[in-house]
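User: Let's play a game. I give you a shape written as tokens, and you guess the letters that built it. Ready? Here's round one.
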């Protein structure tokens, strides 16, 4: 069973709860927004910008528009809308849970802020650490070789001494 699958808490209320959680744990900046099917929450805490981006469900997805139990008959527009909105509420409740759990784990000393949020820390070029690392991680696993941390230095010659 999916967490919060039957929640009645609105997306707006979950977003406000996330903002309140972040304030309570010391964040000094908060931003949320959306573009197309991407919803985003970004905040600054411990001197780091952190961004979570969720891909929201497609309202035209078959799981909303078709009824599996009845040989995939079409759902009514109201049925499809209700199911889609439920999926959005569920996603936002899960995000609130994740953020709160991570911050509580940091607060109680179970882990560090960097360990909990590393993949979501925003780098100077706007990417998150996770976006930057993901292709490199795939390459490391494919090759079995660790990347160098620094470029190789040229071999020194006698003249450099």
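Assistant: Ready! My guess for every position:
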């Amino acid at each position: 069973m999916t967490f919060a699958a039957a929640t009645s808490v609105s997306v707006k209320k979950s977003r406000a709860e996330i903002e309140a959680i972040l304030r309570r744990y010391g964040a000094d900046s908060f931003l949320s927004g959306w573009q197309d099917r991407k919803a985003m929450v970004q905040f600054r805490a411990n001197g780091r910008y952190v961004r979570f981006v969720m891909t929201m469900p497609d309202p035209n997805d078959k799981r909303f528009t078709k009824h599996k139990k009845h040989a995939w008959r079409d759902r009514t527009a109201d049925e499809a809308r209700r199911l889609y909105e439920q999926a959005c509420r569920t996603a936002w409740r899960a995000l609130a849970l994740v953020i709160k759990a991570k911050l509580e784990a940091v607060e109680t000393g179970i882990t560090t802020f960097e360990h909990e949020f590393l993949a979501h820390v925003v780098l100077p070029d706007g990417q998150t650490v996770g976006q930057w690392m993901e292709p490199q991680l795939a390459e490391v696993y494919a090759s079995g070789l660790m990347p160098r941390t620094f470029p190789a230095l040229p071999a020194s010659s006698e003249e450099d001494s």
